[in-house]
Amino acid sequence: MNATSLPCILVVEDEPRLAKLLAVYLRDSGMTPVIVHDGLAALEAFAQHRPALVLLDLNLPGRDGVSVCRDLRAASTVPIVMMTARIDEIDRLIGLEAGADDYICKPYSPREVMARVKAQLRRVQWAQDGVPRNMPATSGPDGTGARVLDINITNWRVHLDGEPVDLTPAEVRLLHTLHAAPGRVFSRQQLLDHLHDDGRAVTDRVIDSHVRNLRRKLATVTQGIDPIRSVYGVGYSFEWPAAD
Ligand code: CA
């Protein structure tokens, strides 16, 4: 992907109305949609068009989204955003570790889908440019556009743009896990597993309480910008909000 070519987005969606709607929004956002309606056609279309990103429905005729996702992931690091009609499916999907980068629950707003698509494309662009992956889309306070989040998990010290942020060890671990994979959605259970490796029995609502405190403390340095995204019914991911 570069400034002169429109990124190609592969949409695998068997509901024609939804596929058309996504295509309209993708074109309006300056992207080129390629649409296929079943899982069998997805891999062939992927090989032919080499898209910059795949929007992949879970329930498809031919082959289901999880098996398509696994095959794509085995062949490529392309960002995959999986779409499902059931919020309770997302936990299961994350657990299956099929390799999707983000999850969207239907009914979705097309604007939300475009925001997620753009976030994934930015993530890939940063990785390709060799720019630190914690670089935000928004400008930093120094005007350079860079926010530098430095997390030291040996001494539990965290600095954001050089400013110390006073966090508890649990908050540091949580932030470290989320920040190490920007844009990736973690379920509460996954975050708990990273938090306590001794398998202690705690409710996953503990994560919500840690995130609440983490947000409050980060906000003192970020001027209110919240880099932790809540994914309704699922969990959390780390990403600096887009400027647009
Ligand atoms: Ca479907």
Automatic annotation (TrEMBL):
Q: Which SUPFAM superfamilies match?
A: C-terminal effector domain of the bipartite response regulators (SSF46894), CheY-like (SSF52172)
Q: Which CDD domains match?
A: trans_reg_C
Domain called Response regulatory: residue spans: 8-121
Domain OmpR/PhoB-type stretches: 134-240
- DNA-binding region residues: the ranges are 134-240
Q: Name one GO biological process term.
A: regulation of DNA-templated transcription
TM regions (residue ranges): none
Instruction: Please name the InterPro entries in this protein's record.
Output: CheY-like_superfamily, OmpR/PhoB-type_DNA-bd, Sig_transdc_resp-reg_C-effctor, Sig_transdc_resp-reg_receiver, WalR-like, WH-like_DNA-bd_sf
Designated name of the protein: Response regulator
Task: Give the source species.
Answer: Candidatus Accumulibacter meliphilus
